[in-house]
Design a protein that fits this description.
single chain; 560 residues; alpha+beta; twelve-stranded mixed sheet; four-stranded antiparallel sheet; globular
Amino acid sequence: MRDRGRRARRRPRSLVVLALLALATTACTPPGLPAPIAPTAASAAGSAQPSEPAVTIGVDGTVEGFNPHTIADYSLVDSAVSQLVLPSVSTVASDGSVQLNSDVVSKAEVTSTDPFTVTYTVDRNAAWSDGTPITGEDFSYLRDQMLIQPGTVDPAGYRLISGIVSRDAGKTVQVTFTHSVSDWKTLFSPLLPSHILKDSPGGWTEGLATSLPVSGNRYKMQSYDTVTGEITLVRNDKYWGAAPKPGTVIIRIGTSSALIAALGRGDVQAVLLQPGEADQRTLLARVPATRRAVVPLPGTQQLVFNTVRGPAADPNVRRAVAATLDVAALRSVLDGGNSALGQSSSSLVSLGGSASTQAPDRSAALSYLAAAGYHRESVYMSKAGQILRLTLTYAANDARMAAAAALVQTQLAAIGIEVDLIRDDQRAMVNSRLALGTADLGLLMVPRGPSDGLAVGSAFGCPVGTGSSGGVAGRNPVPRAGNLSGLCTTGIQALLDQASAGTVPAGLQSALATALPVIQISRPSAIFATSSRYGLAAGKSGPGWAFSGPLSTLPTWPAS
């Protein structure tokens, strides 16, 4: 006991000595050491000024992460926050046109056609909120990661880049492509902070998992409280362009019913929701049409087949599944019974086209299974003594996806196909099970960009090193990027190459429909509604809202 008391009495003196040593070390730090490690979100975000005007936005759903270039991180929240915090070379206007962002690039133009070259002049003042300039290094980092990371959104355009040369301290960026790319303006939007992510273990997937550590836009992320579901964005005082009118933006995450009630009380000024049928009725009763708008989302909810290995690699099995499923019933489940939110989408090339309402055809499904060599044995279909069993993965935290997965299981059981459901974390589902081809089916929302040619090439093009890139079509290099099905045929790839150059061939849609790599279930939408003070503050809606969203204009909203 006496020794313990002596140690306790000595502890303060030891702490003082350590503190003095640390101070002396700091004071005598020699010159020429590497720059300090970039700050984290907590240290770099700064603090909100209480006197600054604030806007509170309610958004439903969940947060998986904040990397807008990954399929696994897609959510309404991720899309809204990344557009307000990260810098983009281009933006999508409400009419759907793609426009260069003059705050980030003062000029971008095609400077050569042989080889096809685009030269970007990055604004001299463009910098991340920790003071690091935005340069060609950020362009190169994004391009490199889009080639090697699993489950990326629209990597096809980056695969066409043959070289990036940075000059003028990184403020002149020369990008050379393998051939002409008509939609080059859609690339590099948004950019990511390469100086933080490139040397961080798991930087691409984990560096943005819980925050956006620095900003290159009008707002920066101050905090994300996972308990209360609130994300606080504050004015980025290092931003070189016009300051936003609302100095603080609070994104409040919750259920549709809770956020609709909060809008009615005046606790939030706007909501962006995917309500079910009952909540939709409540919203329509409380908010007049002049303060409501339907916002199409940038992608489709799909059942993705593994076309490379396992039973689903047989096209006849895929056709049997397609003939069995009641897609209209699945769409209703995914939309929460709210027909205002989901549309059918037959086109695998563009975000459009109404799918047929053809009823399930059990007879056709059985014929396809017979062609694949399966016959009924007791309850289930089998071949060579093996039951036809498919694994279906879906996101664990999405109740509608879980219900739809259960419905797929029930419907396929009716023709003797056994389905094992794998309830998984969304990141593991996309980056491991689907990108590595270890599941037969995946049920998920697959986002895409505004360019039809690059989006379809990303979703169904051969991975790097296969097909038209010089390898063997059908080989399964891993991980899969935007093409989660793994589809790779030389005939389709030749059509996709034409599409990336700007001309979508007439036969591409039919070729994809025949190959059947995915079943598109629904083209989802959200509902945007505002308080009486704001009206439709985001301005006129249009097809471009699918990619920009109404919250992208938030910096111009009237200050409260």
